Automatic annotation (TrEMBL):
Name of the protein in its database record: NADP-dependent oxidoreductase
InterPro entries: ADH-like_C, ADH_N_2, ER, GroES-like_sf, MDR_fam, NAD(P)-bd_dom_sf
Organism in which the protein naturally occurs: Streptomyces bangladeshensis
Oxidoreductase among keywords: yes
Keywords for the protein's UniProt record, in alphabetical order: Oxidoreductase
Enoyl reductase (ER) domain location: 15-328
Amino acid sequence: NREWHLLSRPVGWPKPEDFALVETPVPTPGEGQVLVRNKYLSVDPYMRGRMSEAKSYVAPFELGKVMQGGAVGEVIESRAEGISAGDHVLHFFGWREYAAVDARHAVKVDPEAAPLSTYLGVLGMTGLTAYAGLLRTASFKEGDTVFVSGAAGAVGSQVGQIAKLKGASRVIGSAGSDEKVKLLVDEYGFDAAFNYKNGPVAEQLRAAAPDGIDVYFDNVGGDHLEAAIGSLNEGGRIAICGMISVYNNTQPAPGPKNLARLIQTRGRIEGFLVGDHYDLQPQFVQEVGPWVASGALKYRETVVEGIENNLEAFLGVLRGDNVGKMVVKL
Ligand code: NDP
């Protein structure tokens, strides 16, 4: 069994020396546990937060120990009721090849119903984040003009498409390359998109949304958030999902200067955590599953092969190497 350990807490961008791929014996499942051979590992931006010591909504990764993350795999031995060898499960013991998992922390998934990797992405945590954040936190309603940043990523690409499928009047996305921008318009059906590296976000947003925006779904923070507040219509809502532009900062980033505009617009800005919204999971899969199956909602995945490339895949997400959900295939 090979597994990734955190050796030291990264300062700024994580460096290879902060991690080690360690060889350990395949674990033996205890009573009530199943032994899982992982097939797909998730790499997600929030993992950067767990590499730091700062107090957050989840405990930091422990130094010298294996890291954690979403994973799907096949049960090869079961000592638990209700799960048998040959079943596939979703669980939280990624960054390793084999895991002994308490059955109560494993959710059975059906590889016939959808490709295994989608339980980490379009039908999994990132999909639910898009669904809950847009419909619940941002109180999306038909006719809204929606702006989403990180729009070619796992969460963002789904926010834009769900908004369209639910009757948004206009959807605008931003992303970090011209290829991604083309994908947003040509494949995902965004009405407009721009490359934030090509010029000031505020100017590009004003050009793409001349009548302003009603919803901003923030994956990025910084000047994207500032620009969105500047373009917010009366009664506009901002859902704060993530702020990836600051995750590797060593100095606090300068904040938006136009927060007072929320007073004039009676605008609402609200943070949310997907973990509070798992009651929506059945409704989410019931509504979005058929869209995925019919192709009405499209998704991309960026698949990196091999446990030895798990760290590189994670760093790739922070750099923007991915289109859609980044997963590691074992
Ligand atoms: P993505 O698939 O969107 O991958 C991250 C993307 O961020 C990269 O592909 C890159 O794309 C973009 N990016 C990196 N640096 C910057 C930067 N400086 N400015 C703008 N964009 C940048 O990841 P996810 O869909 O998994 O996550 C998206 C956001 O949602 C993250 O902020 C994450 O932390 C957050 N999140 C929050 C949850 C919650 O419960 N609140 C749950 C899940 C995710 P590009 O080429 O376009 O720059």
